[in-house]
Write a structure and sequence with these properties.
Blueprint lengths: L1 E5 L2 E4 L7 E4 L9 H11 L5 E4 L5 H14 L8 E5 L1 H9 L6 E5 L12 H4 L6 E7 L7 H10 L3 E7 L14 H16 L9 E7 L4 E4 L4
Helix pairs in contact: 1-6, 2-3
Length: 219
């Protein structure tokens, strides 16, 4: 199943010009809270995001990702792929050579014993990569991510979501949706070129007193 979402509407996958092709994590679906909120925030910028449903097997997801990319040949306005958690790994493995931008949400960088950095280190120098991770994400500790970023050949940007776990849930629960929306908005802004300054790192924070998610901007 593929769904293309643009500002204010959801359409079938044959609608034109997606700006980002994206997939969910291993245990989730397109209706998962983290995906739905990200997609809504991204589309609110006026960009279009094409999401597809897959299963829990990485090899199968990569095959499906390649098929979706091929089906959109000549219709994608930006060479951009991405995913959440296992879906982020699938996006890298499936990306065609001409891919310019990678959106990696809650990238599962490590287990207790293993660091999954090989495919990140193989990305070409021309690529641009944005990581969005919670500072309570046990599968992507920020200091370990920064160590990998230093070794990568391409340019990378990092958004830390304060208080968020691997599922992008924050406490109190009331902050989860606004924070999820903000992650989509920030990634859309990055795709539209707001990263052109020197800043490579930013933070999203839930302001409980004001009841809104705040974006620091790039620093």
């Amino acid at each position: 199943m593929c769904v293309l979402t643009t500002k204010g509407e959801e359409t079938s996958s044959d609608a034109p010009t997606p700006d980002l092709i994206f997939t969910h994590g291993a245990g989730g679906t397109l209706n998962s809270e983290a995906i739905a909120d990200f997609v809504e925030g991204f589309a609110s910028s006026g960009l279009a995001i094409l999401c597809f449903q897959g299963n829990m097997n990485l090899r199968s997801r990569v095959k499906m990702f390649k098929a979706v990319v091929e089906s959109q040949e000549g219709q994608v306005s930006r060479k951009c792929v991405g995913g959440r958690s296992m879906g982020a790994r699938a996006a890298i493995l499936a990306a065609p050579a001409e891919t310019s931008h990678y959106v990696l949400i809650s990238y599962p960088l490590h287990t207790d014993k293993q660091v999954r950095d090989e495919i990140l280190l193989e990305l070409p120098e021309s690529a641009k990569v944005i990581f969005v991770s919670g500072d309570r994400d046990s599968m992507c500790e920020i200091h370990r991510l920064d160590a990998v970023r230093e070794k990568m050949r391409c340019r990378t940007w990092r958004v830390v979501v304060e208080g968020a776990d691997h599922g992008m849930t924050v406490k109190p629960k009331a902050g989860t949706k606004p924070v999820g929306l903000k992650t989509g908005e920030v990634v859309a802004g990055w795709l539209q070129g707001d990263y052109l300054g020197d800043g490579r790192e930013g933070k999203i924070v839930w302001d409980g007193e004001a009841e809104r998610a705040e974006w620091s901007g790039w620093a």
